[in-house]
Here is the input.
Amino acid sequence: MRHLNDTGIEERSVSLHNVYAGYDGKSVLVDVTFMLESPFFAVLMGPNGAGKTTLLRVIIGLLKPIKGDVIVYGIRPWEEPEVIRETIGYVPQLLLVRQDVPIRVEEVVAMGILSRLPPPRRLTKRIREEVSKALKLVGLEGLEGRLFNELSGGQKQRVLIARALVRKPKLLVLDEPCSMLDFKARCEMIKLLQKLHIEKGVDIFLTAHDISPCLILEPTVILINRRVYAVGKLRDVLRPETLKLAYPGLTEVEGAIILGEDHVAS
Amino acid sequence: MPVNSILIPVYLAAVLSGLLAGSVSPALTYSKSVTFGITLMHSVLAGALIGVYLHDALHLPVNPLLTAVAMSLTASLLTAEAVARGFPEDAAVAISVSVSVSVAVIMTYIVALTTPYGVSKAFGYVFGVSALATWHDVVRLTAVLVMVIPLIHLFWCEFKYVAFDHEGAEAMGLPVRAYRYLYYFTASVAAASLAMSLGVLLAHIIITVPGLLALKARSPNPFKLSYFVGVAVMTVGYALAWSLNIPPSGGVGVVASGALVTLLVMRRGS
Here is the structure.
């Protein structure tokens, strides 16, 4: 079922209206409202415990809001999970992925396709070709046979992105894709996402603590700490007076703003 | 090793147990659920006590072996549900252990009051002795193997994937909860069967070692190694026990420990 207004804008946007969402009846997100019109490259920024992951779970349909409405390209995620899974590629935090399970890169990426099929889920020649294409797209061609846990942090993150891309999504939702990476690897990761956004037309929605690698992209920034404090272009949101709203522990020093333990904005 | 008609089921049970352990052990170790598998064996005691009480005290036509398996399944489902509701697996296992042990303690008291030999009989069902395996054990192990091995191989890809990244699997539409239930069900049936056929001590060893070796060998397809290790540890262990004139569990324990130590030394040296 499509939920469209007269302009049809909801067909090509991700919009949240007065959303309350959380766990065990307690709201983590309070009155969250914003709209991102495709094509977009958006960064969700906020302190720890701000509800960033919860918001992503709402958008991908893993969590139904307690109150409010969410429409992703004309669809309510929890009403049509099968359609949403084809529309959105989700990349979870690397921290949540078990690193000690001996699983090959090819198997990880192939699950993006295999999960659509009924058991028994076996790798076929066609699936292997799709996997190779997705790995090439993220710059990991030739690593199909390697074990996931033998890769570097940046490579692991790329494998998870390839797994999402193999489903050919319209929107890529990434939870902290730059965490556990050094600055150079963060910049490379953002470049890759930029390439996917520009060349493949994939909308990007990611959460980040440190958005400095994104500066050159001029992304749309959503500043959140349980509620949305600002939505706009980076230069408009990244101002001390705005940041102070979402980061209560914000300190200004010469040439930089210290947002908290590990949150620094230049 | 001596060969006569009495010992044939003992040797067969050893090989079948090795295969059964080889099939479930990778799933248990890959998903960090070894303690869960071991815990299930304790729930078997509670189930056996309930069965003995129903059979001996209330004279109902109930087979304690079935109640033992039923209790093991209940404990596994309780664990699966707790994990599905967000408890960490160790906490979920602790919950099912508490319930199982509470039932065992209460039933021990009730059975001791109402039957003359009920408690020792229940322990006899649970702590099977590998050297006394019978054709019944062979039939039971074969039946469990026929059920467990196809399930494990059919859904291995999914079990591994859920262990690797359950949130990603859920987001891609895999029925994570259903696979978790299926996995716990399979593990509980195998663990209960091994405990009843071999005894708890030997089952502890054999359910852990094959998967652990496959995991340490970092093999993406661990079954060849796991089946081989399961059967080899059992048969070499029995041979060692016979030659040293010690209980089979002791022989298997020595071989299993030796295999683990060898692997650790080799990995450290490499």
Q: What stands out?
A: Chain B touches chain A at residues 30, 32, 86, 154-155, 157-158, 160-161, 163-165, 167-174, 215, 218-220, 222 (CB under 8 Å). The first helix of chain B runs from residue 8 to 30.
